[in-house]
Structure formats: C-alpha cells, structure tokens
C-alpha cells in the first residue's frame, strides 16, 4: 500500500515538473493571463466595433448596449446600434436609430451612409440617393463605399423608370371553379 502512494506521489511530481514553467507560473502566451484587479476596463464601444469587424453581430449588439449603459446614448453609440441592427437585418430598428443619430449629429457621414443603406433595402431609392449625396458631401468624397452607394442609388433610380412602350394589358381568365390565370391580351 505504501509503495502505491510513493508511486502516485512521484508521478504527480514528475507531471507537475513537465509543464513549461515547472513549479512556477508560466510566461508562455498559450496560457490565460492572470487577472489584475487594478487593471483598466476595456471600452465597450471599441469591443463592439471589433466584434462588428469579426461579423459577430449579436455580441457586438451586447457590447454597444454596455457602452450605452456606461457612457449614455451618444450619437456615436446610437449610430453603432443602428449599424449592428442593419447587419442583423432589423431594418425598422436600424432606420429608427439611424434617423435619431443623424438628427442629434447631422455632421456624421457614417450615420448618413448607413441610413441610406437601410432606405435602399426598403426600396426607398429617391430618399436614399438624397441621403447618400449628403453623406458624400460631408465626407468630401473621400470614402469609396459612400461613393459606390451613391452610384448604386442613382443607377437604381434611372432603371426604375416605367417604360410606357412595354405596357401590356392583362386579363384574368377563370379555369375551373377557383383557379385563375393571368394572360396578356392581344
């Protein structure tokens, strides 16, 4: 019985010494760093932007909400919340937040651009073109993304014109008791 305990003790000491730091703490970056209770807290707005870049939109939304709780609803945080809702496909919430952001800070081209994207997604092309023009002017034409969005909106407006020459008359034809078919007239 004593021999078994001795072997177990030797084995555990041998395994502990096999670690990269032996019996001391390791400076190896593979291991998680220790917690410094006096350390500074990371800005949640920065965390949210990094999560957006990593396409982790739900986590970014949580980070932006924490930033709002810490700093209040600044125009930058409202814009960020609107942007993440746009990325999540929540167009109504995104539009409401982005309209609020441009109302509070009308000099932010990013908020105007994102509002334009929401409007394009909602097929409000004419208003989107105006919003992109405003974003383009505020940005002094430096952003390629805003310029491309403006071009897209203008192209959509030009192609959305109804062509009178292609107008056709249609009639509703009944087939059976409750089956209907739409056919062009000759």
Write a brief caption for the model.
The protein is mainly α. The protein is built from eight helices and two strands. The longest helix is centred in the first third of the chain and has 16 residues, at 2-17.
Topology:
Layout: H1 2-17, H2 44-53, H3 57-71, H4 75-87, H5 91-104, H6 109-121, H7 125-138, H8 144-159, E1 170-175, E2 179-184
Antiparallel strand pairs: 1-2
Helix pairs in contact: 2-3, 3-4, 4-5, 4-6, 5-6, 6-7, 7-8
Distance between the termini: 103 Å
Gyration radius over CA: 30 Å
Order of helices and strands: HHHHHHHHEE
Overall shape: elongated
Sheet with the most strands: spatial strand order: 1-2
Task: Describe the protein.
The N and C termini lie far apart (103 Å). The mean pLDDT is 79. The protein has 186 residues and is mainly alpha-helical. It is elongated, with a radius of gyration of 30 Å. It has a two-stranded antiparallel ribbon. The chain has helices at 2-17, 44-53, 57-71, 75-87, 91-104, 109-121, 125-138, 144-159; strands at 170-175, 179-184. It is built from 8 helices and 2 strands, in the order ααααααααββ.
């Amino acid at each position: 019985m004593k021999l078994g305990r001795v072997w177990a003790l030797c084995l555990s000491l041998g395994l502990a010494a096999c670690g990269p730091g032996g019996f001391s703490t390791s400076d190896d970056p593979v291991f998680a760093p220790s917690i410094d209770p006096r350390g500074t807290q990371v800005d949640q707005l920065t965390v949210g932007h990094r999560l957006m870049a990593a396409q982790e939109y739900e986590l970014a939304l949580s980070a932006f909400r924490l930033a709002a709780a810490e700093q209040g609803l600044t125009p930058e945080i409202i814009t960020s919340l609107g942007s993440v809702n746009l990325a999540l496909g929540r167009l109504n919430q995104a539009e409401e937040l982005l309209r609020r952001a441009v109302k509070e800070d009308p000099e932010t081209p990013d908020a105007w651009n994102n509002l334009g994207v929401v409007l394009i997604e909602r097929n409000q092309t004419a208003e989107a073109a105006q919003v992109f023009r405003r974003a383009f002017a505020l940005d002094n034409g430096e952003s390629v993304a805003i310029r491309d969005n403006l071009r897209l909106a203008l192209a959509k407006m030009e192609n959305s014109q109804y062509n009178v020459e292609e107008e056709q008359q249609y009639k509703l034809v009944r087939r059976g008791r409750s089956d209907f078919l739409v056919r062009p007239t000759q």
